[in-house]
Amino acid sequence: MESGWGSGAARADGALASKRAKEGSKSRSLRRWRKSKTKASRLTHSMDLRTMTQSLVTLAEDNMAFFSSQGPGETARRLSGVFAGIREQALGLEPALGRLLSVAHLFDLDAETPANGYRSLVHTARCCLAHLLHKSRYVASNRRSIFFRTSHNLAELEAYLAALTQLRALAYYAQRLLATNRPGGLFFEGDEGLITEFLREYVTLHKGCFYGRCLGFQFTPAIRPFLQTISIGLVSFGEHYKRNETGLGVTASSLFTSGRFAIDPELRGAEFERIIQNLDVHFWKAFWNITEIEVLSSLANMTSATVRVSRLLSLPPEAFEMPLTTDPKLTVTISPPVAHSGPGPVLVRLISYDLREGQDSEELSSLMKSEGPRSLDLRPRPQQAPRSQSLVVHIHGGGFVAQTSRSHEPYLKSWAQELGVPILSIDYSLAPEAPFPRALEECFYAYCWAVKHCALLGSTGERICLAGDSAGGNLCFTVSLRAAAYGVRVPDGIMAAYPATMLQSTASPSRLLSLMDPLLPLSVLTKCVSAYAGGETEDHSDSDQKALGMMGLVRRDTALLFRDLRVGASSWLHSFLDLSGHKSHANSVPTAEPMRRSVSEAALAQPEGPLGTDSLKSLTLHDLSLKGSSDTSDTPELSLSAETLGPSTPSDVNFLVGPEDAPEAKARDELSTKDQGCGARAAFPEGFHPRRSSQGATRMPLCSSPIVKNPFMSPLLASDSMLQSLPPVHIVACALDPMLDDSVMFARRLRGLGKPVSLRVVEDLPHGFLSLAALCRETRQAAAQCVECIRLIFALPAPPAAPRV
Predict the structure, then answer these.
(1) Distance in angstroms (rounded) separating the CA atoms of residues 356 and 410
(2) pTM of this prediction?
(3) What's the rounded Cα separation, in Å, for the pair 609 and 418?
């Protein structure tokens, strides 16, 4: 008996030791993986481009010679071929990157802010070269070892070779932009036919290589596991969505078949490419609103700050009066939103870390909208904090088509705690059901209501900041422009995180990065903008039924994961493609109340003639630039008339930065005439052929729509006189964001007008980092920069530095 017990104990000890050994092995493997990623990252910053290329070519030639001598085997032949391809692409890419880097500084906002799409493209290519250099060194050191994983290393090398080939194509496209654009311009300024040809050529490039093994290689390592999780979830959800469309339905067992996407990066990349190119905006509405479901939102709120007030309010559609800033004795009528669906309430969420005076008033409680089990019972407490002097009015992102304040609640709660001010977040109606200008009307109405009723919100309203991310940043600018047009109080400052300021169909160096960005693919961006512009041509009733049917099926089979999916789409808008838009119908309003007419509707009801719709439709950025020096003396002052509330007259729009950028003209002249050919394919040198997509034609609208040139939709196209009305602007952008050039060009226009503007650019993070604020140290630091910008607007003292541990 004793010996049996002893042998059992020995077996238990052995099993425990084995388990510890396995855990230690996993831990060591994870540390080695992180160490290898860190080494590749260090290579990116420590070596200049030419040295990196020469080192990579030398290693590629050495590995190529070794595997060529290993006999006629298929694996050796493929390894030799992949290193030959790496050598060829690296040698071809280096001169193109050097040319871009030599002129990139001419497009910066200033010397303290070295950021633009050309720099981002070069940095991304360097990341790819650094990874290949690190991997080539590893192969050279371990190729004779019996533990060398030939198949794994071959697959990774082939994936990064494909990525390097596509990056070389992007570098040539960037050269084409440099040759075509005017000095200082980042956006493609050819005629509309040339832009369409350029974009149609661009979207045929193969993208799957960037969504498999190479997924997120350009971002900080802490982000990559999250991106892998998102990509696996996306392709799995897309498979279920496809089954629902074809009538097969979603079965509980089918949820587990998607595990193959987790273990097969190539399959995942191909499926990811198919989804982003072919599925409609309603799929993206469902997928991006996953964060709205009860389980995930509850988990997010568990990790966020605890606040005393988080109440969803419904503002009734009632007109009210606002004083004019020029003469407070005079008032203007603020009408409720009416575009497309008629007058309706506007939902807003009030968030406050402390319960402040006015926030538990009966008047505010009467506006409260029930959220079921999440609603808070705020009973009056004996101690209340006094009203804050400041107020944040927040407008969430989501591509104009997805998400609500609930999706952004975790970081808003942190803001409320750190700033000590109440926050009012606006839940505007989403496209395609509510296209432009409905969202603008609702945000403007809610902003004016907040200014008038700030006492109910726990603020005296002495300082008001408009803050928003992505599409919300766009709406912050346009709400301010509309407030100035009405003559009412504009905010004291704007904090816009990675905003979209140009929705016109065009290209820029940073937007070329959408080829590899898993969060902002080009085809998805165009579908979001198409929906917002009213160009969605699908049968909405059928699509709504499909989306609801999908929600029902998913709720039935995966209640814990996908319950409560609503029609929404894309936390990452921003786009740029002219879509087949239709004009917003003018709503009938009493003539006795001229200000009840929508500013944006007035913008679409232009008079015939030089500023009519037909002429505006044919305008390009180049045309706007050429008109910058003429007719400026005839520009009318901003007033409340319907005429001046229309699109900016192109007379005083000037994209030319000035004579200080003259050296760039010389650099452009040095480009080969081959780069300045008429066809988009002329951008490639002879003998170079990028990889093309195998997914067939992309469902991406590229038709023209004058509505995207409306300054209340694309604030970058606003006239100088309109931009002069903006308050101080603080922009926080991402260096690797396809929307980076939107921020840079908007900041340059404001700087050229002498307006106070700051631009902060965070490195190695994707678009939408605010929603990832709790993910890692880098995202927390980037989110802290947004808070710091709001502090500057409120003139609040900086928080005490955290003690060092």
Answers:
(1) 20
(2) 0.79
(3) 53
Query: SS3 for 351?
Result: strand
Domain stop point among 185, 200, 216: 185
Strand-pair partners of 365 = none
Domain span at residue 523 reads: 291-369+390-535+706-795
* Of 414, 470, 721, 758, catalytic: 470
Q: What is the pLDDT of residues 537-582, one digit of tens each?
A: 444 444 443 433 433 433 333 333 333 333 333 333 333 333 333 3
Of 430, 475, 468, 439, whose CA–CA distance to 286 is shortest? Answer: 430
Task: Record the tokens describing residue 109, joined without a space.
Answer: 């906002």
144: in domain: yes
- Is 346 inside any structural domain? yes
Cα–Cα distance between 501 and 504 in angstroms, integer?
Answer: 9
Active site residue 470: yes
359-365 long-range contacts, Cβ below 8 Å, gap at least 24? 359/309, 359/422, 359/456, 359/457, 359/458, 360/384, 361/456, 363/456, 364/311, 364/313, 364/456, 364/457
In DSSP terms, 392 is beta-bridged to 423, 465
pLDDT for 169 beyond 50: yes
Identify whether 328 is preceded by a cis peptide bond (ω within 30 of 0): no
Query: How many residues does the structure list for the chain?
Result: 805
Which of 185, 213, 241 is at the close of a domain?
185
Instruction: Please tell me the distance from the alpha carbon of residue 718 to that of residue 481, in angstroms, as a whole number.
Output: 9
DSSP 536-589: --S-HHHHHHHHHHHHHHHHHH-HHHHTT--S---S-----------PPPPPP-
What's the number of domains the chain is made of? 2
The single residue listed with the structure tokens 């003018």 is: 586
Residue range 275-322, pLDDT digits in tens: 888 878 888 787 777 766 655 555 656 667 889 999 999 999 999 999
Radius of gyration, alpha carbons of the chain: 28
pLDDT in tens, 732-755: 999 999 999 999 999 999 999 999
- Burial class for 329, CB neighbours closer than 10 Å (0-12, 13-18, 19+): exposed
